[in-house]
């Protein structure tokens, strides 16, 4: 399906007279360029985790400035536009060149090409935003970046790369604690491990034995700011000062930081990467339904460990799912669906976090009742608990994300210790 859409889209460009030479190519062998300019002075590579290029060609005929067009396509049935892109640029001269990033979503009128401000990095670890003065032709479907005097390869990405290496670092740090267990809860559609961490003082086990908080993340691949918030939130929970107040004497914490490892690695906009024609890829946060849901291996793995906790008669007392969107906010339940106990937790949590941080929180409480079957709705309905979607603004500063995640983690322990 995706290849068909690519072909139709690029043929339309040719018929409109826009595309010249260096037409769309399927990816060659690892290490080879995905495409290159007609004059050979710059090439695009996309063979690493979180890279995403669905089409690439040069508009220039070799007589002027190279104008490389990089096209990315939404997965089938995606209606929430999160147009991910990621590739490595290898210049072979200091000549000027342009790269236009285009997105295409046949399910919507536009694809919000500029949702993520483009970022660059020399090493794939340290990132900076590309200056606005270098960006032109920005609209809902594309934007162009101008480059000059480039002498070394560099990465361009919608958000910083946070793939397997990033998550292994998180899991290693959390799993190294004497009160934590690192284990696999299942495998993804393509066989990648879905790993979890259990923070449980006084035992070495894969199963909680005290009232349990569940933290999940990365159901949607591009939502990097939410991933950063989850990691900082979790790191805070293993600090010695929190252990001293006895939080983990009273509660266990189950952390599943990356529910969609295939989608993250493939640079998907929204879905997992299930290639089964009988069980196609989908938005994992629409698969939380006991009747018609949990069809994907990723959500089924999470449900399985939740069922195991229930079977051991361990109460689940709080659920927080980390995401990213256009603003800092927490999706909570509407009045008619507040839990029967501790319904004031969101307000108390926010107030406590502001005290810890020493300033007013940028996160506001957004009462919603989803019409679809997402994790927040499922966990509230099944367990009658506070189930919260922790949303982080796409372009929030990393230091702000981290400081507020730490404040909210500490605040959570403070409020829960009063229950």
List the helices and strands and how they pair.
Blueprint: H1 2-15, E1 35-36, E2 42-45, E3 55-58, E4 67-73, E5 86-91, E6 97-104, E7 119-121, E8 128-129, E9 135-136, E10 142-147, E11 154-157, H2 164-175, E12 180-187, E13 193-199, E14 212-217, H3 224-237, H4 240-244, H5 247-250, E15 252-256, H6 261-265, H7 297-311, E16 316-325, E17 329-332, H8 345-357, E18 364-367, H9 375-383, E19 386-393, H10 398-416
Parallel strand pairs: 4-6, 14-15, 14-16, 16-19, 17-18
Antiparallel strand pairs: 1-2, 2-5, 3-4, 5-11, 6-10, 7-8, 7-11, 9-10, 12-13, 13-15, 17-19
Helix pairs in contact: 3-10, 8-10
Give your account of this protein's structure.
The chain is of the alpha+beta class and 419 residues long. Helix content is 26%, strand content 24%. It is built from 10 helices and 19 strands. The chain has helices at 2-15, 164-175, 224-237, 240-244, 247-250, 261-265, 297-311, 345-357, 375-383, 398-416, and strands spanning 35-36, 42-45, 55-58, 67-73, 86-91, 97-104, 119-121, 128-129, 135-136, 142-147, 154-157, 180-187, 193-199, 212-217, 252-256, 316-325, 329-332, 364-367, 386-393. The protein has an 8-stranded mixed sheet with strand order 12-13-15-14-16-19-17-18, with helices on both faces. It has a 6-stranded antiparallel sheet with strand order 1-2-5-11-7-8, with no helix packed on it. Residues 1-30 have low confidence and may be disordered.
Looking at the structure, what is the overall shape?
Answer: elongated
Helicity range? 25-40%
What structural category arises from helix and sheet content?
alpha+beta
**Gyration radius, rounded:** 23 Å
CATH homologous superfamily identity of the largest domain: Zn peptidases
Kindly identify the CATH topology of the largest domain. Answer: Aminopeptidase
- Count structural domains: 2
- Biggest sheet, spatial arrangement of strands: 12-13-15-14-16-19-17-18
Largest sheet: 8 strands, mixed
Order of helices and strands: HEEEEEEEEEEEHEEEHHHEHHEEHEHEH
Percent of residues in beta strands: 15-25%
Roughly how many Å apart are the termini?
52 Å
Indicate the CATH class of the largest domain: Alpha Beta
* CATH arch. level architecture of the largest domain: 3-Layer(aba) Sandwich
Q: Give the beta-strand count.
A: 19
């Amino acid at each position: 399906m995706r290849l068909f859409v690519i072909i139709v889209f690029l043929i339309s460009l040719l018929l409109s007279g826009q595309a010249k030479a260096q037409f769309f190519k399927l990816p060659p062998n690892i290490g080879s360029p995905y495409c290159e300019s007609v004059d050979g002075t710059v090439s695009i590579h996309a063979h690493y985790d979180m890279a995403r290029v669905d089409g690439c060609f040069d508009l220039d005929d070799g007589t002027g400035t190279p104008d490389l067009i990089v096209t990315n396509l939404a997965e089938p049935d995606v209606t929430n536009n999160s147009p991910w892109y990621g590739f490595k640029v290898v210049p072979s001269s200091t000549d000027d060149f342009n790269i236009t990033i285009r997105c295409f979503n046949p399910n919507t009128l536009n694809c919000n090409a500029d949702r993520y401000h483009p970022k660059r990095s020399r090493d794939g670890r340290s990132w900076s935003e590309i200056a606005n003065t270098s960006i032109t032709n920005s609209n809902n479907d594309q934007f162009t970046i101008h480059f000059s005097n480039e002498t070394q390869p560099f990465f361009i990405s919608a958000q910083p790369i946070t793939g397997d290496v990033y998550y292994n670092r998180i899991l290693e740090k959390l799993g190294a604690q004497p009160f934590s267990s690192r284990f696999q809860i299942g495998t993804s559609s393509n066989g990648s491990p879905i790993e979890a961490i259990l923070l449980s003082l006084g035992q070495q086990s894969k199963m909680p034995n005290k009232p349990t908080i569940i933290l999940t993340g990365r159901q949607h691949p591009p939502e990097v700011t939410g991933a950063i918030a989850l990691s900082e939130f979790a790191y805070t929970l293993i600090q010695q000062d929190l252990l001293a107040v006895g939080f983990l004497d009273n509660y266990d914490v189950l952390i599943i930081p990356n529910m969609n490892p295939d989608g993250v690695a493939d640079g998907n906009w929204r879905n997992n990467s299930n290639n089964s024609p009988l069980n196609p890829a989908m938005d994992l946060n629409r698969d939380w339904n006991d009747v018609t849901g949990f069809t994907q291996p990723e959500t089924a793995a999470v449900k399985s460990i939740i069922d195991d906790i229930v079977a051991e008669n361990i109460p689940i007392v709080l659920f927080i799912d980390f995401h990213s969107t256009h603003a800092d906010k927490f999706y909570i339940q509407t009045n008619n669906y507040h839990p029967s106990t501790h319904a004031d937790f969101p307000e108390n949590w926010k107030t406590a976090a502001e005290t810890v941080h020493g300033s007013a929180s940028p996160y506001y409480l957004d009462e919603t009742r989803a019409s679809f079957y997402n994790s927040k709705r499922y966990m509230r309905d099944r367990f009658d608990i506070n189930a919260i979607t922790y949303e982080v603004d796409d372009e929030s500063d990393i230091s702000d994300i981290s400081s507020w995640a730490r404040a909210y983690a500490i605040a959570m322990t403070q409020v829960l210790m009063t229950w």
